[in-house]
Structures are given as C-alpha cells and as structure tokens.
Specification:
By secondary structure, the chain is an alpha+beta fold. It has helices at residues 2-12, 18-26, 36-46, 52-65, 77-92, 186-190, 229-241, and strands at 113-117, 120-130, 155-161, 168-175, 178-185, 195-197, 207-212, 223-224.
C-alpha cells in the first residue's frame, strides 16, 4: 500500500491543481467501492496524467505485491485456521484428510488433519497467523498487513497449542506477498525455548509460541516449501516416534 500511495502521490503532482486536490482528499467521503484510490485514479485518467496502459501496469504491479492480501480480510482467527489454513493444506497435500472417528476411534476434535502413512495414522495440528505492523494496533488487519521484506516489527502468536493432542504441528505464516510453512514434531514444539506453557490459567497442557522478527531465523531448520510438506510431516513423525 505504501508503494501505491507514493506512486499516486507522484502523479498527483502533475495535476495543475495538486494543492487543491489534496485538500479535497482530506474531506473526501468514501464508501465501498468508491474510495480514495478510485477517486484519485479517475481524476488522473480524466486529466490525461495516467493512460489506460499505465493504469493496467499499476494495477498488475499492485496485485503482484499483494497476492495474499485477501487472507487478511478473513475476520476471525478460527475462520483463518478452520476454513482457510486446513483447506490450503488439503489443496497442497491431497492425502491429508479431515479426521473422524472412522479414521481414529479416539478422535474428539483435538487436532485438524490426518495422514495415513504405512500402518500409522499421523495426527496433525495446524496453526496459522498473519504478519501485521505491530506499530498500528488499532487499524484493520488488511491496512496493516506487512510485506515479507518490510523489515517492520511483527508478532505472530500461535495459540492454544496442546502438544499431547497431536503428533505433528504445521505452522503457516502469511505476509501480503508471501506464505511460509514450518513442520515440527510435538516434542520439538514442547522443548522449544519459545514455547510458553499455561496460556490460560487452569488450562493444563496448553501453551503458546510467539514468532517475530527477532526469533524467526531460529526456526529455519523447520521451514519447508509447500511442495515438501507431506515428506516433512513424515520425517517429523519418524523423529517423534524414532522410526527408521
């Protein structure tokens, strides 16, 4: 968004009434889909300070920088995890299944995905979070969504981690232009220095882990590409169960 604002501001300077135009923007009443950007672009087109081809290039570049911005518009954390994250992983790894008592007689909604491997059933818990500007706590998520290389402070809190309820944890982190995946065994989560036990008073066996700009590099050994997720889950399970 910052880059788009700079590009439009540069074009506004080309208008003969740039000063008055900026004053009008300060009092502009916006309602979807007629907002500040629509107002600026329509005036630039009308004044021949932006032609159709330049507009299309501006539009394409913005979309390329914000491939995953729509994920920041998913309102509730549960919607992010239950609806988007699980669906995303099933698309990537079709062998992942939604768990049920038919697959696991002990299943009672305590984990998110199931993978059949050899004679084993691997229980997988999925946690997802979004990178937002920590210096803008009161703004909507989509306006403070960060690009991966922004260098700004962020704090992703993976909550309600119950290490006894799953064999494997998949963490998904979303930036406006990038998605990253980490795969850890339950023991690797439990023993991690950043895992904090006792997220809520009285909730035994439940914890949380903060991933931020200061410690993200320490999780590099668990990071995998989307095409490597299935194999990474199996390898983490083998480490967990000490299977060769």
């Amino acid at each position: 968004m910052e880059k788009l604002k700079k590009e439009l501001d540069r074009l506004i300077d080309k208008l003969g009434n740039a000063k008055d135009f900026r004053k009008a923007l300060e009092t502009l009443v916006s309602s979807y889909p007629f907002n500040e950007y629509e107002y600026i672009i329509s005036h630039l087109l009308a004044a021949d300070k932006l032609n159709l081809q330049e507009y299309l290039e501006l539009r394409s570049a913005y979309h390329n920088r914000n491939l995953y911005l729509s994920i920041f518009e998913i309102s509730a954390p549960r919607g992010l995890g239950d609806k988007w994250a699980r669906g995303n992983l099933i698309q990537i790894v079709p062998e992942f299944e939604l768990p049920s008592k038919e697959l696991d007689k002990k299943y009672s909604n305590q984990y998110d995905l199931w993978l059949k491997w050899r004679d084993y059933g691997i229980r997988i818990e999925v946690k997802a979070s979004r990178a937002v500007d920590a210096d803008k706590p009161d703004e909507p998520l989509h306006t403070k969504a960060l690009s991966y290389g922004s260098g700004k402070s962020f704090d992703m809190n993976f909550q309600q981690i119950k290490t006894k309820c799953a064999d494997i944890f998949i963490w998904i982190a979303v930036w406006r232009d990038n998605i990253k995946y980490w795969v850890l065994s339950s023991d690797e989560v439990k023993k991690n220095n950043y895992f904090s036990k006792g997220q809520h008073r009285g909730n035994v066996g439940e914890g949380q882990l903060h991933l931020n700009q200061n410690n993200i590099s320490e999780f590099a050994k668990y990071e995998v590409k989307s095409t490597e997720i299935k194999n990474a889950v199996i390898e983490a399970y083998k480490r967990q169960k000490k299977i060769s």
